[in-house]
Amino acid sequence: MSRPHPNSHLIGDLQARSALATPALILDLPVLEANLSTGMRLVKDAGKAFRPHFKAHKSLDIARRQLELGATGICVATLSEAEAACELGAELLLTSIISTDAQCKRIAALAASGATIIAVVDHPDVALRLESVLQGTCGALDVLIDLDMRRARSGCATPKAAAELGNLVSASPTLRLRGVQAYAGQLSHMTSCKERSAAHAEFTSRLAAFKFALSHILPDDPIVSGGSTGSMNLDLSGPLTELQCGSYALMDVEYLNVEPGWTAWPFKPALRVQSSVLSTHWDAHAITDAGDKWFADKYGAAPRIVLGAPETAVFEPISDEHARLVTEAKLHPGDRIECLPPHCDPTINLFAAYHVFAGEQLRDIWPIEARGL
């Protein structure tokens, strides 16, 4: 039996921010809406399609706002995200490759249920497995050929391998080739603009070689999908036809540590973790209630304090339930501390809901979908 959220009684309260049960994930609604509008405007002005990534926020409420602003569809990273997002009625792109019979059957079931979904494939065996599972179920499934853009995580490693796979897909009665996925994720958190620009130039050249090898089988107006928040300024004028950015909506410490490529980041931090001070018996630190269970990083960044303690204070998760706040400032049990998360995607996956705020007022509590599998 589901329990009511411990903060649900605060919805509408003009002073709810200082009364939350913590740890709590806070979403600044005006900042979110500004980020969504800015991202859509930048992509639209560049003449490209925008298919923002659900994995960054895992929220149907945020995805609906992205679609209302003009997004072409939604990217999802997992089948469980696809199953949650299919109620949006938008075209979904499953950006992760699949391989097992169980995964092929789940995507076939989604397509058979009426969901519009595109899969990515990078191996003939998987294409044949999908073809077999799809026979007699839902007609043809749209697919993109996944290309390895030097990340060595997935994708055809050579233009020759991509062309061979493309020929197989083109001949399939149950698969329909829509284009390619060219995700160069290694660009996303390159700190130096100069290094990122050089890597993007190499990516552009490599993608051109793949597209040439596939030119005889690609449709007239192929999808060329990829990109990230970190490389967005380069992708707006690059060879991609649609962008998959996700973190632009929320931002985090690890993106703020990256040179943006613009004069300044056009996106602002919309996400915070609020914790409460528990104990203050020491001269140089206090203890709060948000430990390792409530923060995730990818590149070693720490949570960044933005409210409740001096900017010089250091927030250090030290156990599952506790963090040490290193500061000589005088704090008291019950004081509230707010931090930007190191990496938004996996931090969000640790929470069940967003507390959606405009100033001090709690506007709503939005569920976080598709956590786990």
From TrEMBL:
Pfam families documented for this protein: Ala_racemase_N, D-ser_dehydrat
Keyword Lyase: yes
Signal peptide: none
GO biological process: D-serine catabolic process
Domain named D-serine dehydratase-like: residues: 270-358
Keywords for the protein's UniProt record, in alphabetical order: Lyase
SUPFAM superfamilies, per database record: PLP-binding barrel
Domain of life: Bacteria
InterPro entries: Ala_racemase_N, D-amino_acid_metab_enzyme, D-ser_dehydrat-like_dom, D-ser_dehydrat-like_sf, PLP-binding_barrel
Alphabetized GO MF terms: D-serine ammonia-lyase activity
Keyword presence, DNA-binding: no
Similarity comment: Belongs to the DSD1 family.
PANTHER family (UniProt xref): D-SERINE DEHYDRATASE, ZGC:162816-RELATED
Name used for this protein in its record: D-serine deaminase, pyridoxal phosphate-dependent
Organism: Cognatishimia maritima
